[in-house]
Amino acid sequence: MTTLAFDVYGTLIDTAGVTTVLEKHLGDAAAAAEFSTQWRQKQLEYTFRYGLMGVYRDFRVCTRQALDFCCDALCADVPAAARAELMDCYLALPAFDDVRGGLELLSAARAKGARLKLYAFSNGRPDDLAQLLARAGIDAHLDGVVSVHEAQTFKPAAAVYRHFLARAGAAAADTWLISGNPFDICGARAAGLHALWLRRAPAAVFDPWEFAPDVIAADLIEVARRFSDAGENSS
Ligand code: LAC
Fold first, then answer.
1. d(CA 156, CA 147)
2. What pLDDT digit, counting tens, does each position of 63-78 carry?
3. Ligand 1 centroid to 124 CA: how many Å?
4. Nearest C-alpha to atom 6 of ligand 1 is from which residue?
5. How far is the CA of 8 from the centre of ligand 1 (A)?
6. pTM over 0.85
């Protein structure tokens, strides 16, 4: 049995989906794109910092604090109601275009005998993830959703990858993390899992660390083709 753990934000779900609402409030497309990038970077920085501090504040808190930081840092006059709208937007972010097709291919492969288990595995809160994946219409393809919330820390702490394996009842040697986030790939490799980096931007550069991805793919269709014959002849 091969277990695939799909990262959510930046892998299945596009965090740049906030750009349209940001543009409405900031009034210009370039400012909205810049804000969206910085918001995401700050959100992740906060997860790393809380992780190192040994203090847990959930992902929604990190997202909100990062939003408030960006409003201050970028001198954006975003009133409270607009900030609330942006936070709601985070619960309805879109899936990347290739995601539904890729998951359908994997589901079809399973129906033909591929021995695969499919999970979402994310920093997000369980209730936020349930809403997000349902609204994006992809939850039905998954065997389960594992949140770091259950381990009370964030990726790339080794504890969260161990938690994933325990929840999925999977061995590290049979498990692949599929992620668009290089720090997540490094964390999974350091914890002994296999890892596939979804290089969503062709110009993206991977960190020059010893924890490199086993495989690089451009989209979920390529991922699905790679795993479609997984373990058909083994247990
Ligand atoms: C997640 C982060 C990496 O979904 O965004 O876990």
1. 13
2. 999 999 999 999 888 9
3. 7
4. 122
5. 5
6. yes
- Token code pair at residue 230: 């997984």
Pocket of ligand 1 (CB under 6 A): 7-10, 122-124, 155, 181, 184
Give the integer Cα–Cα distance in Å for 12 and 76. 29
Q: pLDDT digits over 143-190, tens only?
A: 999 999 999 999 999 999 999 999 999 999 999 999 999 999 999 999
The residues carrying an active-site annotation are 7
Please identify which residue in the block is written with the tokens 């992740």.
Answer: 44
Cβ atoms of residues 111 and 232 within 8 Å: no
Output the CA–CA distances (angstroms, integers) from residue 147 to 36, 82, 232, in the order listed: 23, 28, 29
What is the Å distance from ligand 1's center to 186 Cα? 13
Closest-CA residue, ligand 1 atom 5, reads: 9
Burial pattern 193-227, b for ≥16 Cβ within 10 A else e, equals: bbbbbbbbeeeeeeeeeebebeeebebbbebbeeb
Q: In which residue are the tokens 């369980």 written?
A: 126
